[in-house]
Request: fold
Amino acid sequence: MRESFERASLPAVRYLNGLPRVVPFLVVLAFVVLGVFLPSPAWLLIAVAALLLTWILALAWPRLTVAEKLMRLAVVAIITAITITEAFPRG
Reply:
């Protein structure tokens, strides 16, 4: 199962690897910032950022230390919480 996931992800990983290192970070940052500041359906941009970060975390999981796993899980949890907050605002 893991091997098929990695094999299916290989073209996207190769593409991302060809980009300057700062580009994926800026894309995720832009999605989150735009998702927070744009009107209602823009929370979908934050959800895309959360899915992207979860995908990267899943690919890197076996190679990470426990501390790295916890830090990356915390980031995904925060982005997911922001998504839920934006999708279902109170009042």
Remarks:
- The chain has a mean pLDDT of 93.
